[in-house]
Amino acid sequence: MNPLKHVAIIMDGNGRWGLKYKNSRNAGHKAGLKVVEKIIKETIKKEIKYLTLYAFSTENWKRPKNEVNYLFKLLENFLINKIEDLNNQKIKLKIIGYKKFSKKLNKLLNYSEKKTSKNSKLQINLALNYGSKSELIGAFKKIRVKKFKISEENIDRNLQTKNIPDPDLLIRTGNTKRLSNFLLWQLAYSEIFFEKKLWPAFNEKDYNRIIKEYRKIKRNFGKI
Ligand code: FPP
Fold first, then answer.
1. Is 47 within the bounds of a domain?
2. Catalytic (active site) residue 60
3. pLDDT of 160-176, one tens digit each?
4. For the chain, give me the number of helices (H) and strands (E)?
5. Is 12 an annotated catalytic residue?
6. Which helix (H) or strand (E) element contains residue 144?
7. Which of 10, 12, 62 to mutate to test the pocket of ligand 1 (most atoms within 8 A of CB)?
8. Domain assignment of residue 10, yes or no
9. Where are the beta strands (DSSP E) in the chain?
10. How far is the CA of 65 from the centre of ligand 1 (A)?
11. Which one, out of 127, 159, 189, 213, has a CA that is 20 to 30 A from the CA of 107?
């Protein structure tokens, strides 16, 4: 049975779900956040150590202002209301992506990371203003400044995901088969599951079904 240390998720389909059932894309994001909470609980239950969630990409800034503002307000309220609880559950929160938000949100993100930094039950990597290509460019620039050689280890060490093992499993909901500039380097050998359901409709049962399938896969890492 495959060990499972790290699950990464592209939570796609909020907008479509919101429009279909509530006549508003933002309502889909609100419902999506409820699913995030359920999946965090289930991840702890399964004793998985890392959960990486793609919450906002570098490309998502191109969305209407109203939607972008709504997403960040949702995140802000979530942290204000839940960081105590996450900390009590021994969850460590780490932001990947460049923190270029409002002063208030940057402060809140830094506070949340610092408060939970010693926890080790589950590490949640929240990808915010994250783009894999810009992450890789950043890593190469750091390597050049340090005059280090270009090697797999040096690239790993200079990514925003340094010290985090590569994802074993990537799940993308929303019936779309693409990676959308997410962890392009780190997903080199991950098992990828594309799920038809939209993120707000995804539940613990779906998550467990995918984990069960994943466990059965013979992972070769290029060998036979
Ligand atoms: C993609 O669906 C989803 C996002 C860009 C945002 C993800 C946010 C959440 C799940 C809720 C907030 C989470 C936190 C942690 C505060 P989409 O909008 O691209 O859906 P579509 O493909 O149907 O348009």
1. yes
2. yes
3. 999 999 999 999 999 99
4. 7, 6
5. yes
6. helix 132-146
7. 12
8. yes
9. 6-10, 50-57, 91-96, 122-130, 169-172, 191-194
10. 15
11. 159
